Amino acid sequence: MHYYTDVLKRYADFDGRARRQEYWMFVLWNIPVVVVLMVIDFALDSYPVITWIYTLAVFLPSLGVSVRRLHDTGKSGWWYLISLIPFIGGIWMIILMATEGNRGANQYGEDPKQVVAA
């Protein structure tokens, strides 16, 4: 749970690097939250207003952790735009997010694995 709240605390922070674990735990916590909100919207027999509000609320934190994850692999945050390419872009983005980060410091900061371990 702390991975989820840590990302929310760094709301619009696009500097630094994020480990794979930080990114994927945030994504995995978002899935059940969205599913529960969709069930609530369905139970209220309304347009998915609650789900859309939540999605908009976590858009910047999601973008921030994605950019920091790309920084960990040595890529610029602008690589996030690759996901806009139909079909291949989403697959490429998943591969980039699952790729192990650079060991040691890179141009975006210190290795988050070493910082946590220290």
Question: What attributes characterize this protein structure?
Answer:
118 residues; globular; mainly alpha; 0% strand
Walk me through the structure.
The protein is built from six helices and no strands. Helix 1 (2-9) packs across helix 2, helix 2 (20-43) packs antiparallel against helix 3 and helix 2 packs antiparallel against helix 4 (59-72). It has one domain (2-117). The longest helix is centred in the first third of the chain and has 24 residues, at 20-43. By secondary structure, the chain is mostly helical.
What is the chain-wise order of helices and strands? HHHHHH
Q: Mind describing the biggest β-sheet? A: none
Number of helices: 6
Can you tell me the number of structural domains? 1
How many beta strands in the DSSP annotation?
0
Task: Indicate the structural class.
Answer: mainly alpha
What is the residue-mean pLDDT, rounded to a whole number? Answer: 92
Which range does the strand content fall in?
A: under 5%
**Share of residues in helices:** 55-70%
Rough outline: globular
- C-alpha end-to-end distance: 22 Å
Q: Are there runs of 5+ residues with pLDDT below 50, and where? A: none
Radius of gyration: 16 Å
Element layout with pairings:
Blueprint (H helix, E strand, L loop, with lengths): L1 H8 L10 H24 L5 H9 L1 H14 L15 H11 L13 H6 L1
Protein name: Aminopeptidase
Keywords: Aminopeptidase, Hydrolase, Membrane, Protease, Transmembrane, Transmembrane helix
GO molecular function, one term: aminopeptidase activity
